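Chapter review: from sequence to fold.
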Amino acid sequence: EASPDEAFGWDNERNSRRVEVPRFALSAHNVTNGEFLEFVRSRAYDDQRYWSEESWEWKTSHGFSHPAFWVRKGDEWYCRLLFDEIPLPTDWPVYVTYAEADAYVRWAGKDLPTEVQLHRAAYGTPEGGERAYPWGDEPPKVARGNFDFGRWDPTPVGYYPSGQSAFGIHDLLGNGWEWTRTVFKPFDGFDPFPSYPGYSANFFDGKHYVVKGGTARTAACMLRRSFRNWFQPHYPYVYVAFRLVEN
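The token string follows.
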């Protein structure tokens, strides 16, 4: 994974490095609300077998029985948006905690991708090179994805086919951050910014996971291929989707 030579980049994006990525298969789309609803309706969400010990304790102590952005009214499901509450859109990506995503992939018999796997799928090419963006080197435009404040809410998965990567993977930029199973830590040669030494270093605690991509409200200038965000595994109010990988 490489941090390009750009005018700006946060300290955790540097320095450049090259990593060998073994063969893997990644789902072309993020897991949807409808697919996650099957997980909930099958009662697997409440099955301890699919949760780590720490995540099960979090889930039960807080009384979670479904994602935080969902609302259940009798037998009907709704989605809580920024300004509204609507019937659950089954073709939108589901936004969940890392703990919930991890439980789902265990149930599905798959895994969450690593940071390097997601990076390879987003920016790599079959020939071995890298693109600036999943679709190529052309700067971000509205037709390429759900980002840069074009919308307030998600769109159905695969809504922007012209934004897919060289490997046919959709929505790798915008429409929700994406969980990886990579713990947030520095690259070799990490050097904190003197003007903001705690920006990244304060979170190298082994308790945060790298997320990549962006949401509908991620500015185009932040859509660098080197950009890394991070969240704790049990914080529920995050716009983070996920997809499945098979190694």
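Two observations follow directly from the output. The first strand starts at residue 25 and ends at 26. The beta strands are 25-26, 70-73, 76-80, 85-87, 176-183, 209-214, 229-231, 240-241, 245-246.
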